[in-house]
Amino acid sequence: xxxxxxxxxxxxxxxxxxxxxxxxxxxxxxxxxxxxxxxxxxxxxxxxxxxxxxxxxxxxxxxxxxxxxxxxxxxxxxxxxxxxxxxxxxxxxxxxxxxxxxxxxxxxxxxxxxxxxxxxxxxxxxxxxxxxxxxxxxxxxxxxxxxxxxxxxxxxxxxxxxxxxxxxxxxxxxxxxxxxxxxxxxxxxxxxxxxxxxxxxxxxxxxxxxxxxxxxxxxxxxxxxxxxxxxxxxxxxxxxxxxxxxxxxxxxxxxxxxxxxxxxxxxxxxxxxxxxxxxxxxxxxxxxxxxxxxxxxxxxxxxxxxxxxxxxxxxxxxxxxxxxxxxxxxxxxxxxxxxxxxxxxxxxxxx
Length: 351
Hints:
Blueprint: H1 7-22, E1 28-30, H2 31-37, H3 45-57, E2 60-63, E3 74-79, H4 85-95, H5 107-111, H6 136-146, E4 150-155, E5 159-165, H7 166-174, E6 192-194, H8 203-209, E7 211-215, E8 221-226, H9 227-255, H10 261-266, H11 285-292, H12 295-298, H13 307-324, H14 334-349
């Protein structure tokens, strides 16, 4: 587990899971809970590798793969049939129609650098579908009730026959067709992507078609992703970077002019003592904290603000920043994002 969780706790976790499975109990949890059990809040290379190693040593696996599924989706922990790592990757790619050329990139590698399709909530939210011989009015009613722009036309949960959309219906109506069945307005212009694909790798397809169908590890059509979904995902991914930048700029403004250069250089990280510090802009969040937690330094500021509370908030911001800079595909927890927003607004009021 991570640095705060020792191997004894790791062994105990494995034994507890094994005991439940031995009693034929179903063991299920969200990816979020699995990470918390290992002392982590987001997926990064080291924590994914650590969880994989623990599972493999205990003869366990997760269905679906915890590294490629949505953050708040449920996974089941089961006994593994002990395939090799390369077999696991190949099987996963084969099940989703991927090529063997990409099989060499393990889920551990991709989860550390990419926002995966399966991490978007709508990728696994299920689909409302129409049938080819269904009355058109029925399909349009479904679209109106759900406020959908399109419906997949399917036979079963895996077999997509086409797509019906307001656009396809409108084009037929403009041309004078009075269609009664879904098949009359059906189009074949659609794309299917896999839950294990990187969002960035299929972004152009989503933008061009305005939506894509999503296929899970069992080749079931598990959801639809639209351009709106992608925009929301990008906001959740990049808003922390924007807020952290705002916080650092506000801290530089607050500190500017209150401390001489020698003092700023004195709080520089001793492990990085060759880095030039010529102004407050050259300090890190940890160094801002080191500067302001000193009572004498704090007294140089003119704000009637409680220092202890300020430093506590700044430390939480610093911890969140360290997590964000791991570039994990998982979102910053809501409480962490709220804390960044509140602290950024607070600093903006100090004038």
